[in-house]
Amino acid sequence: MNKHMENKILNKTSTLEGISRVDGRLKVTGKAKYSAEYSVKGITYGVLVPGTITKGSIKTLDIKKAEGAPGVLSVITYLNAPKVPGYQTDKPQAKGMLKIFYDEQIYFNGQPIALVIADSFERALFAASLVTATYNVEPHQTDLIKNRSNGFTPRKDYSRGEDDAYKNAPVKVEQEYFIPTEVHNPMELHAIIARWDADDKLTVFDKTQGIKATQKNIAQAFKLPPDNVQVTSPFVGGAFGAALRTWPHEIAAVLAAKVVKRPVKLVLSRADMFTSVGYRPLTWQKIGLGATADGKFVGITHEAAGQTSVYEDFTENSVNISQLMYASPNVTTRYKLVSLNVNTPTPMRGPGEATGAFALESAIDELSYALNMDPIELRLKNYADTDPLSGKPYSSKFLNDAYKLGADRIGWSNRNQKPGSVIEKGWLVGYGMGAGMFGAYRGSATVLARMMADGTLLLQTAVTDIGPGTGTAMVSIASDIMEIPAGKIKFDLGDSSLPPSPTQGGSSITSTVGSAVNDACKELQAKFQELNGTTESGKMDYVQILKKHNLQQLEVTTTSHGGPEQNKYAMYSWSVHFMKVLVHPATGVVKVDKAVSVADCGTIISNKTASSQIKGGTIMGTGMALMEEAVIDHRYGRLINNNFADYHVPVQADIPQVEALFVNKPDPYINPIGAKGMGEIATIGVAAAIANAVYNATGKRVRDLPITPDKLI
Length: 713
Ligand code: MOS
Hints:
713 residues; binds dioxothiomolybdenum(VI) ion; Aldehyde Oxidoreductase, domain 4; 3 domains; seven-stranded mixed β-sheet; alpha+beta
């Protein structure tokens, strides 16, 4: 990092609030257009018909009534659907994404068996109710706990030091933990409008986290050149992993538009969301944790079994956090997958790590009570100064600063080590904490930066913004470098015809695209300096320079990615969450009274959007801890709470006060802007922090989420 950059970062860290969301006004006034909201000439409406068995095959399908219903244009099933050219034609379906309307096989309850297309949504919905089917029913398995012994090992088990060394430690805990399925339910339903512009040209307005990935996936499915598929998605109403991949309903809409020769809009229903776009998989875990009498870890053994579908092996890092988070000479991890008659899970914020951290950070809390030691002190005793997995130095780690910041702010000194000993206004009071970590990544992105004659700076790249405020962060970076007001900068995104950017996932976009914006702006600035014959990087009058040289604009297109430093250092973001909870002794109701989440994720680009991101993650983790649970009735293999009346998520009244704090020290190696990711660490560790606080309040250790009142009374 050169001196100039260092100064920039230092200046940046002194910025207080940061700019307001560049698209905030559009969003709150309803002017932001989401995928289902485009008015497309000749639009038609699709409604999916879910199958009603859990395993077997379709025997008969009756679509006559539906076809004859008013306004119906077509009813697509596996019997009449045109072939999707990119589907491999092995029979039955080979492992891979569910091939929609491919054959008679049923792999899970709710699998679509037909798509009705009509001239209005209401008519399509009515006609969908007229489709009937009979089935050859086979016995299904949907219960992970019952089938745990049938799991297989998708990845090699991990071991350093001695296997299961915790067993011989002077002090140990050995416990099982359980998280239920959590279903993706962002406010915006998944939606796509598909329109064929020519036989080999297609436009989709689609909810997606990956513009270029969606373009590629749809192009592959329909055997088109990628450039012939236009993907438009400038606004996304929340996505936490569910829009990382291209799902069967997207293929179905494109197929349907081909059949009816008109544009088709397909919006999933809330019930569809429970079976169509993945979920955080139900996972069983076991931790064995051993320490010396003074709290030094002797060994950690972390085992997990997660569920997946029969047609895909969805594998996540549920046990990896135990390999990484603390300095322990002996670590053993084992991970199994169990194939069940369910739809495939998908990443959900902190995929794997959020699951694993619930078990690990709960177990450490249990150990702290066994040792009668403050849980922060116990963690500091086992603090890793280099990456325990690779032995490499960290690019940056200030987790100890985060512990201190958070402990001070929550009032950790008010915590009583003896559970159930503090009562305020008739409520039991408890304090708890849990830490998190996630890889800090930097990919490759291309950004066009163009200075116009009127002094407006245009930035373009094909990234999406699923909510964190990507545009805002990019404008903020550019404004800082170019020394022009944010209001003079326009950031175009969400369009596949723009220069390529990666999928928004893995907390990597500010690092990746932010660095590309940084590099593009610096290059543009250098071009101006060259024109102007100046060398210092003082404030420049871009408008005057353009005018002097008779130019309408000056632009650069820059591709930016990491270098060898990516391999030299272990790069992670870190978080710690502190909770003060109240538990009602008679009813078992848990209220989060105060939450303080602290992130060590390098330079904070925009304090406002970063705070929102952390708060959102804390709230999501609160849902995981206290409410969210998709329940299958295993007799039928069907979800029984596939709606917002029965599937609970936190609302305003559940979350009185969340504070987000930042260490805000630049990472000197990850990229030129010093910023690491924060999306995932916002949730990782939260559920354990709440469970630990509940234990501190009540003396009851709940190891199976969610912590509902019945488990406390
Ligand atoms: Mo995130 S789980 O990479 O959307």
